Amino acid sequence: MSQRQGFTGGFLLGAVLGGAIGGIIGALVSSGLNNSQTGGSLEEGEDGQLPLQSQLGMEAARQNLEDKIAQLNQAIEVVRQQVEDDYSGSDLSNHG
């Protein structure tokens, strides 16, 4: 039974992580496609810098991505602890 719970936890974690990562990648790809279709581009100005709006948008996207990664890491840690607890409990009952 404990192995089934461990499998279920791992399966759910995989589904959540896969959905989140797929969503992030989809949003990034979609944003890139939308930008190229509307004729907008990230062209450098005369001083070799991107326009301020592009820099701010990229910074916001980077920060959002870092936040999502931190949330995923926390979720992974919680599930890892649950699996370890389930495994250690079932390990004792199977060998005792």
Short key terms for the protein model shown above:
96 residues; mainly alpha; 83% helix; 0% strand
Overview of the structural elements:
With 96 residues, the chain is mainly alpha-helical.
Mean pLDDT: 76
Approximate strand percentage: under 5%
Q: Helical proportion?
A: over 70%
Major pleated sheet: none
Class of secondary structure makeup = mainly alpha
Counting DSSP H or I runs of 4 or more residues, the number of helices is 2
Oligomer kind: single chain
**Low-confidence parts, pLDDT < 50 over ≥5 residues?**
none
DSSP summary, beta strand count: 0
Shape: elongated
Element-level helix/strand string: HH
Distance from N terminus to C terminus (CA atoms, Å) equals: 17 Å
Gyration radius over CA: 21 Å
Concise structural overview:
The chain is an all-alpha fold and 96 residues long. It has helices spanning 2-37, 52-95.
Describe the secondary structure blueprint for this structure.
Elements lengths: L1 H36 L14 H44 L1
Helix pairs in contact: 1-2
